[in-house]
Design a protein that fits this description.
The chain is an alpha/beta fold. The chain is built from 7 helices and 7 strands; from the N terminus they run H-H-E-H-E-H-E-E-H-E-E-H-E-H. Helix content is 31%, strand content 13%.
């Protein structure tokens, strides 16, 4: 029967579409990268999505985050994502968690419930905790490396963390993963050397913070405020979604196949 996923079914077949519909994917971080990953997963027929983020949509998100519109400014990102998913696939089961994932909050989540885990957060401790929890639960995980301060979307690659280069975030993750005995981690990263953002106080969040009321982690609390574009984090998010869908379908889209 013709439905919203018929064009996808022409490529994967009915059996695979049933498999995707019975899969639950957790996406940690619903920002520039994670938002686009969620969008593509919903449009690919994933049947259940857990969305984890405590952030609210800010005016400065409109340049790059698919969930950010004038209408959603001030709303929780997970709520905006849930509403959008409902418009795409009402049958998708959505669970929202207004939580910032860190080692202190990891016990709120049972990773054994998931068929795949997406790490799209930007803190090292949180990323490592996600990877460790996924490893313990024997659940496949894919992790996004740095997408900020970059302008060339064509340089993204899928690789094992130990095969990465150039990316500063990937370098730290390689070191920390090795310390923890993590022998393999599927990542999306870019070999583009990050640009140094302009120091323009007239448009700096540090001088003109406009975070919505009730925002738990304001930009002024960040060590660095990166520049970003509409076309770099979105590509990383779409690549991640493609890897998840192809892995769940039993295919390998990228150069590296997760060993988890």
């Amino acid at each position: 029967m013709l439905n919203q996923f018929s064009r996808t079914q022409l490529l994967y077949g009915a059996e695979t579409m049933d498999r995707l519909a019975s899969s639950r994917v957790a996406v940690f971080g619903i920002g520039g990268v994670g938002g686009y990953a969620v969008e593509a997963l919903a449009r690919s027929g994933i049947g259940a999505l857990d969305l984890i983020d405590d952030d609210k949509v800010c005016l400065t998100n409109l340049n790059r985050q698919i969930l950010a519109t004038r209408k959603t400014v001030g709303h929780y990102k997970v709520d905006a994502a849930e509403e959008r998913i409902r418009e795409i696939n009402p049958a998708c089961e959505v669970r929202t968690h207004k939580t910032f994932f860190l080692p202190e909050t990891e016990d709120q989540f049972d990773f054994r419930e998931y068929d795949y885990v997406v790490d799209a957060i930007d803190t090292i401790s949180g990323k490592l905790a996600i990877v460790m929890k996924a490893k313990e639960a024997a659940v496949p995980v894919i992790s996004s490396m740095g997408a900020g301060n970059k302008v060339n979307a064509s340089l993204f690659e899928v690789a094992d963390i130990y095969e990465t280069s150039v990316c500063p975030l990937a370098r730290v993750m390689r070191i920390e993963c090795r310390k923890r005995g993590i022998d393999s981690l599927k990542v999306v990263y870019s070999k583009e050397k990050p640009k140094r953002p302009l120091e323009d106080m007239s448009i700096s969040c540090r001088q003109h913070c406009i975070c919505p009321p009730g925002t738990a982690r304001k930009c002024t609390q960040r060590r660095d405020i990166p520049g970003s574009t509409a076309f770099v984090p979105s590509v990383a998010g779409l690549i991640i979604a493609g890897e998840v869908v192809n892995d769940l379908a039993g295919r390998t889209a990228g150069a590296f196949h997760s060993a988890l």
